[in-house]
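Convert to structure. Protein one:
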Amino acid sequence: MRTFIIAGLGNPGPQYQWTRHNAGFLFLDRLAHLENSPLNRKSFAGLAGEWSYRDSRHVLLKPQTFMNLSGKSVMQALQFYKLPLSQLIVVHDELDLPFGAVRFKQGGGHGGHNGLRSIMEQLGKGDFLRLRIGIGRPPHGDTVNYVLGSIPPEQMEQLPRVLDGGLEMLEMMLDQGLPKAMSLFNNKNFLEG
């Protein structure tokens, strides 16, 4: 089984911890907690850990560079482990998906997401795998304040279900490949049923 770098995007610091933009951090924190794989090594301008899954070890990475410089951290990890882009999974918040939806996407643009933009600038292209965690769009107006806003209490209660769904998708992708994971999960909302 191949080794992946699984990079969750977010902003460091307590004021950002529970914001929508930190969905990638929250996902990795959940994975680290459930799988007992602490993210406590300071490396690659981030916090890193190892996740042993089946017969392979994956690198977990939370860049601590702030969102718009995430690419520096991801690039350092890829170079250190000498891995191709095909072995990078970036976990990030997604405005274009409703809360409760988690989707895999292979390649594509950055869609205005500063973390993805930074990674693509560093890597020179965008053909890596993304695990997109839906945060929905604000009904009107400013997306910046929305993504940096705190996750509302009713969504906080439901968040573990959504993140666990994402972890289930990730494990399915590692076990049975991306097409299978996408066909089973990409039309699902983890808050329904």
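Protein two, convert as well:
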Amino acid sequence: MKDAKMPASDSYHPFKISNLKDPNYSAAYLSLIFGEEEEGDLELKIMLSAMRDIFEALGEPNMSADDAKLHLEKLDALLSGDGIATIYALASWLKVLGLKLTVAVDAGDEEGSANVAELAQVGKI
């Protein structure tokens, strides 16, 4: 019997980028990625990769090469920062791509309210 070779599979990346060209899909994708943070599982590498994919789908085709390079450099800088300025920078970065940050009610929270310790933690700069 001859050695059977597995056919090479297509890369998932082009498929993912083609889906992310839909801003609604991109928003849902980021919501899912950011939702991992609530469970303590979000890693900076994963978030950076997701944001770069969103940029590749929504920003890169609509920008000059120089603008695209600057926009990616902003992403690296803002993710290395901390404090309230980081949230504003992220909101600004997403706005250029036609997306925005939003706040939603956590469907898993039966009481629908945060305790004082959680609010204090959020308030830290």
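The helical segments are 12-20, 23-38, 44-59, 65-80, 84-96, 116-123. The radius of gyration is 18 Å.
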